[in-house]
Design a protein that fits this description.
Alpha-Beta Plaits; Dna Ligase, domain 1; 2 domains; five-stranded mixed sheet; 14 helices; about 35% helix
Length: about 425
């Protein structure tokens, strides 16, 4: 007779506090303790702010920076452009630090991870403090940690740790009684539950469900009938059932997109061709990293919805004779499609490409018309380009059609130096002179 010992699942959730602002404050001590805003592409709207800024000014993030920058500056608020290169580097350091605390980890976003803590016999409150302190010591980033018997509970525990100072940045729901957990849930609005967006929250409120505790005690059949199976699973997870496991590997992409708003409006076909070529290069490089091939490419351009002119947002999809991840072939197709939709006299604000109908290497179906001829030579060329670009990111190989001046590139006038990713931007301290 076999005796099976059941070990209840335990999950951890680690989340960086105010990720973008914290990265800036780690690298520049003069920003620590100061109210700080991080702006979106082209220095448009605030997308993140420091703890000090949240306490100083309650701002609607849909408002563009230029509308309130004078008021903000009078209050001492500092604004910086997004430094995505630096944030990605800090994210990698954060993730690698967490890997030393668990055999199984899921990277959920740039600033948060789930950890599998099943089988750990340690006091998770103490262990969470060690995780928090180690991340702070190794990366400089402040984090909070939550533990629960499901991923939804772990994420909720992190929210509690972040919002309630008595937990000192770590909350372990697995060590609490049901009554203690219910007491905490009864004080948290249902919109704070992972996966409950604004629309679902409003619909739940109409049904009298305002708190997490009310959602936890909701009838699963009614929730499924009204909202579907996803929210039903959320209710079950709030009750300690495990329906979502750690995803250590990412699923293959169904599509790859590259697009960005321009730093200034552009009107000419040449400028649009440069932008489209840049996005093709960016998208195909990401495609090759995943060892995928595209069967079609869509190119799109648009003017600003805030312009007085009528909206113009065309797109054109080109099906390919056989799947490819060759930058040159996809760029030729994209530029051909661009000419089909380009109109003179329009002030374009954004352009991009979308690679679709993706297949892995083994799923390729070759054609008989010569499009995939020289596939081995093409692959070798792309691999060589990628290796050179990885080794020399500042002087990399580009398509000639990308242009040189690039007057259309994203505006980042307030960007901080790339302290951690560029040797030339390393901060230098001049040692004192002794007589």
């Amino acid at each position: 007779m076999l005796l099976t010992l059941y070990t209840k699942k335990k999950f951890g959730h680690a989340d960086v506090n105010n990720m973008y602002a914290s990265c800036e404050q780690v690298c520049n001590p003069k920003l620590r303790g100061k109210p700080l805003y991080i702006l979106s592409n082209n220095d448009g709207i605030p997308i993140a702010k420091s703890k000090e800024a949240k306490e100083l000014l309650d701002l609607d993030f849909s408002q563009p920076w230029f509308k309130f920058k004078d008021i903000a500056r009078k209050l001492g608020i500092i604004a910086l452009s997004s430094n995505y290169e630096m944030y990605a580097d800090f994210s990698n350091r954060f993730v690698e630090t967490l890997r030393t605390f668990t055999p199984s980890l899921e990277v959920y976003s740039i600033d948060e991870c789930f950890l599998d803590m099943t089988g750990f016999n340690k006091n998770l409150n103490d262990y969470g403090q060690v995780i928090k302190d180690t991340v702070k010591q190794w990366t400089g980033l402040p984090i909070c940690v939550g533990f629960g018997h499901s991923k939804t509970l772990a994420k909720l525990a992190n929210h509690i740790a972040k919002k309630q100072p008595q937990f000192n940045g770590v909350c372990d729901l697995t060590a609490m009684t049901e009554a203690e957990i219910d007491s905490l849930m009864d004080k948290i609005s249902v919109g704070k539950v992972w996966g409950v967006g604004k629309a679902i929250e409003q619909k739940l409120n109409k049904l009298g469900v305002y708190t997490v505790l009310r959602l936890k005690r909701a009838d699963c059949k009614r929730i499924r009938d009204e909202f579907g199976v996803v929210l039903e699973r959320t209710v079950k997870e709030l009750n300690g059932e495990n329906w979502l496991d750690i995803q250590e590997t990412f699923l293959e992409s169904k599509q790859v997109m590259s697009s960005r708003s321009f730093g200034q409006r552009i009107t000419t076909l040449v400028e649009l061709e440069e932008a489209i070529s840049y996005h093709v290069s960016n998208a195909t490089q990401r495609l090759r990293k995943q060892n995928l091939y595209a069967n079609a490419i869509m190119v799109f351009i648009k003017n600003s919805p805030f312009d007085k002119a009528l909206p113009y947002t065309p797109n054109y999809t080109i099906g390919l004779p056989s799947p490819t991840n060759n930058t040159l072939q996809l760029n030729n197709a994209a530029l051909w499609g661009l000419k089909k939709i380009y109109k003179e006299g329009i002030y374009y604000q954004k352009a991009g490409v979308l690679l679709t109908d993706l297949v892995p290497d083994a799923g390729q179906q070759l054609d008989i018309f010569g499009f995939s001829d020289g596939n081995e030579r093409s692959q070798a060329l792309m691999e060589t380009m990628d290796k050179i670009n990885l080794k020399f990111p500042d002087n990399n190989i580009k398509l000639a059609s990308e242009g040189i001046k690039k007057s259309w590139v994203m505006r980042r006038e307030l960007k901080s130096p790339n302290y951690t990713t560029d040797w030339n931007d390393l901060p230098v301290t001049v040692p004192p002179r002794f007589s």
